[in-house]
Structure prediction request, 431 residues.
Amino acid sequence: MKGAVEAVLSVCANQPDGRPLDDQVRARLRERAATWNNQGIRVLAVATREMPAQAGYGRDDESGLTFAGYLTFLDRPKAGIRDTLLELGQLGVAVKIITGDSAAVAQHVATSVGLHAGRMLTGLQLDELHDDALWHAAEQTVVFAEVDPNQKERIIVALKKTGHVVGFLGDGINDAPAMHAADTSLSVEGAADVAREAADFVLLERNLGVIRRGIEEGRRTFANTLKYILTTTSANLGNMISMAVASLFLPFLPLLAGQILLNNFLSDVPAVGLAGDSVDAELVDRPRRWDMRFLGRFMVEFGCLSSLFDFLTFGLLLWVFAAPPDLFRTGWFVESLLTELVIALVVRTQRPFWRSRPGNALFWSSIGVMALTFAIPYLPYASLLDFTPLPAGVMLSLVAIAAVYVGGTEVLKASFYRRHGAWSPAGTAAR
Prediction:
């Protein structure tokens, strides 16, 4: 048999030369194993016993064994692991070690890779903790040593209970319960089949740097998804309010069905570029979560601001230019599309929009659709959608409204983030 030093010694009765294995010899053997453990060397004890062939073997057969020796293993940390762990810490990711190895080995590994172990819990200590106590202890502990598969799962559940998002990297059969319990589980190519089947992701490269890059890419994707939601929900709410109010007072439809469809199509063209938009550094350096209350407040405040400028446009077209239905629809179409395009460039960042460079796809597609917006009323077949050429005075007025809208949105954005905080507040760090 082979296994942990203490477990094997407890069932041994003889030394390799046949002499009894007394307490003095056991102490020397434990001391030798402890010396190796303190150097970061994993130690397994091996014992033997000659037995007759039989149908099966049980725990009762594991007694009176002869101690044979040790198997030692040294897994040196990969080059650059210290820098990678430092980078993960800067991203708000706390790294913990959960292992079945001895406490001395785990402590040595943690120190060698730059993890400040601080408090350490062993499997025996975990058995003495109730779940409530473990919830608190798991958060404060960096190294868990000499733990069994069920204890690994308890640790993961405890971290999740305290609000953490937990990722677990495992490669052995006994890691499967913890991998199933984690929010995200990872394994590596060459790991046990059970571990790879339990994993959400299988890393083709044994390098924590891959995880760091994956976290950064995930946060950029999250940020760009949020940009699209903030832009479209606020713009659509504003248009809905404006359309509803205008329909109550106008003797004609504010926009025709074809005009609405064209507006929606053209406004969505730059939105495609949001998927690959550049992301400000502050939106990557910390984990963030969905916050529906935050999204709701944003939609209402910015949607109402959009409607306010729509009403300003209505008043200008009706009372200043005495616009007939076709001129009114064309004017509002231009104003509505321009404001939807500019708001995407403004609300895509918490910074003043001129201090955050958008991605090339978003920027140039927005410029292209803006140019098309100005051109649509003057195109040869514009009349098919009931568009009419806009007088210069009307067009200049609409451009002025869009420019003021940009300024108003920027002012509201600064006020909004002062009152409600950053995009989807991070809460607790991902683990």
About this structure: The chain has 15 helices and ten strands. The mean pLDDT is 90.
